[in-house]
């Protein structure tokens, strides 16, 4: 059985232009830096992401992408500067943000529905069930709730990870190269589906990727990191692959 998503085509981020969606949370980094002992880190950088914006972050290995994501997720605290989600300072993992990682990090002892409901323990059973069903529908996995993780393809597992993230109705969705382990066809399909979900859910997205073409396709805006600093911060409309590549050259 192949999962399908039935929805009207969403505008691309480029078609959306600078439009934002008020349901998402704003994100602000003010003079933020984090340095590791004996190796490079990040910053100081200043960055603002508007509510509902789709931002892609690119850069080579060691450029600071993972450090930035860990800071945004609250796993690391800035050694300098402040990160704000809306009006709140991020001092650790925050209930208004969720992270989807490369491998999905699903729990094999739970079925699909159990994985999606894992972060909803504060809700009553009926609300948990309804949230999980809605999230699975969004990612094209209606009827998959009783499946076990080992029964799913790689693309389906990433859909479950995305459903779990969406089920908590986050203001900020962080994605750490979520499609990197997938084949090209599945990767392209999921990227297009993600755009449709973003447009429907009005969530702010920060998407980290090594793939420059993917960043230009998905993002309204792209930030290129090089040696822990922002080498380019630009709208993707009219931005060429060559300009983005040049910004990343040392």
UniProtKB/TrEMBL annotation:
Keywords: ATP-binding, Nucleotide-binding, Transport. Pfam families: ABC_tran. One of its GO terms (molecular function) is ATP binding. InterPro entries: AAA+_ATPase, ABC_transporter-like_ATP-bd, ABC_transporter-like_CS, ABC_transporter_ATP-bind, P-loop_NTPase. Residues 1-22 are annotated as: Disordered. Residues 27-250 form the ABC transporter domain. This is ABC transporter ATP-binding protein. It comes from Deinococcus rufus.
């Amino acid at each position: 059985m192949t999962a399908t998503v039935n929805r009207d085509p969403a505008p691309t981020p480029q078609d959306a232009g600078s439009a934002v969606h008020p349901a998402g949370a704003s994100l602000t980094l003010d003079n933020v830096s984090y340095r590791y002992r004996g190796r490079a880190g990040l910053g100081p950088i200043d960055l603002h992401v508007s509510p509902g914006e789709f931002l892609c972050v690119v850069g080579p290995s060691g450029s600071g992408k993972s450090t930035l994501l860990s800071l945004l997720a609250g796993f690391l605290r800035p050694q300098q500067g402040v990160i704000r989600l809306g009006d709140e300072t991020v001092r650790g993992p925050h209930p208004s943000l969720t992270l989807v990682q490369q491998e999905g990090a699903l729990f094999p002892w739970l079925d699909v529905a159990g994985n999606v409901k894992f972060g909803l323990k504060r809700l009553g059973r009926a609300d948990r069930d309804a949230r999980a069903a809605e999230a699975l529908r969004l990612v094209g996995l209606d009827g998959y709730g009783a499946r076990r993780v080992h029964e799913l393809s790689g693309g389906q597992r990433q859909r479950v990870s995305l459903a779990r993230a969406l089920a908590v109705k986050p203001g900020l969705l962080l994605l750490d190269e979520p499609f990197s382990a997938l084949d090209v066809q599945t990767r392209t399909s999921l990227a297009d589906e993600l755009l449709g979900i973003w447009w429907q859910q009005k969530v702010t997205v920060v998407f980290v990727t090594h793939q420059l073409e993917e960043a230009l396709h998905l993002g309204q805006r792209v930030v290129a990191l090089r040696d822990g600093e922002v080498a380019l911060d630009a709208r993707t409309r009219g931005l060429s692959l060559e300009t983005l590549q040049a910004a990343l050259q040392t």
